[in-house]
Amino acid sequence: MQSALEKARVLVEALPYIKKFYGKTVVIKYGGHAMLNSELKQAVITDLVLMKFVGINPVVVHGGGPDITGMLKRLGIESQFVGGLRVTDSSTMEVVEMVLGKLNKEIVALINQLGGRGIGLSGKDANLITATKKLGKDQADIGFVGEVAKINPQLLKTVIDEGYIPVISPVGIGPEGETYNINGDTAAGALAAALQADKLIILTDVEGILADPKDKTSLISVIEAADIPSLIEQGIIQGGMIPKVECCVKAIQSGVTTTHILDGRVPHAILLEVFTDQGIGTMVK
Ligand SMILES: Nc1ncnc2c1ncn2[C@@H]1O[C@H](COP(=O)(O)OP(=O)(O)O)[C@@H](O)[C@H]1O
Ligand SMILES: CC(=O)N[C@@H](CCC(=O)OP(=O)(O)O)C(=O)O
């Protein structure tokens, strides 16, 4: 069993990190695959609430891809992806918005249950995320998939200062009032840039960026943004990992200090990354 002294040592180890990040903003992309079960969800939300209580400002952007796919299936609609993005016709958009809205409130309720002050927003609230139509690979029409046009972070700053943990679903509003489905990673990167966050943390379902996607032990712990394009060209980074690394690179170029791709299946991955010497996953800087 852990001795009392060992427990104290762990707490003391957190002090320099609490000092370093006190008052800073950390954007966390909470992906659908990192919402596997209620124990894991509870661990993620506990980390967020703890962060807020020690003076760091977490902002959550959530996904929900697996739940959206599940609901579409129940309605007899097959999901189709082009370059990692869901082809979104108007009825798919309705389902996307409904499922993300439900997930959003589940996360908010869990934050509140664990003693934090959660507030759920979609990109439509206070024009937080305005969007334009995004074309797919080879200029394909992929429907109501949105590209972030502008982030209006004023409301977010207000609720953060009031002590809330904002939870944002990646739905954008277009110039004609149309609704857009935005990839959760892309939305998180754009929000981190607009808030000039200190960290962007993307939770996913792998250890981090792997040098060989079939070998779990080939984790790349640190990578420079400049080295990413060649890994994509070589086919080492593929599929759903591409939007993640691209948004890390964009966020870095826009002034976010560090970005991290972490294994959301590891309980308390966020705490381990933010408050301990070891750090986990891949840091893109
Ligand atoms: N080099 C790589 N390292 C790690 N994962 C990779 C790599 N290239 C592709 N991937 C894939 O990217 C996936 C993560 O993207 P995605 O499934 O979209 O996650 P999420 O649902 O968490 O947003 C991994 O499960 C893995 O299959
Ligand atoms: C355009 C697009 O693909 N949008 C995503 C939005 C949700 C998301 O990003 O969920 P994960 O983070 O769980 O993958 C979708 O419809 O699945």
From TrEMBL:
Substrate binds at G64, G65, R86, N181. The record marks K29, K244 as: Transition state stabilizer. Its EC number is 2.7.2.8. The keyword tRNA processing does not apply. It catalyses: N-acetyl-L-glutamate + ATP = N-acetyl-L-glutamyl 5-phosphate + ADP. One of its GO terms (cellular component) is cytoplasm. Keywords: Amino-acid biosynthesis, Arginine biosynthesis, ATP-binding, Cytoplasm, Kinase, Nucleotide-binding, Transferase. InterPro entries: AceGlu_kinase-like_sf (IPR036393), AcgluKinase_fam (IPR004662), ArgB (IPR037528), Asp/Glu/Uridylate_kinase (IPR001048), Glu/AcGlu_kinase (IPR001057), NAGK-C (IPR041727). This is Acetylglutamate kinase. Belongs to the acetylglutamate kinase family. ArgB subfamily. CDD domains: AAK_NAGK-C. One of its GO terms (molecular function) is acetylglutamate kinase activity. Pathway: Amino-acid biosynthesis; L-arginine biosynthesis; N(2)-acetyl-L-ornithine from L-glutamate: step 2/4. It is found in: Cytoplasm. GO terms for biological process: L-arginine biosynthetic process via ornithine. Residues 24-263 form the Aspartate/glutamate/uridylate kinase domain. Catalyzes the ATP-dependent phosphorylation of N-acetyl-L-glutamate. It holds the Pfam family AA_kinase.
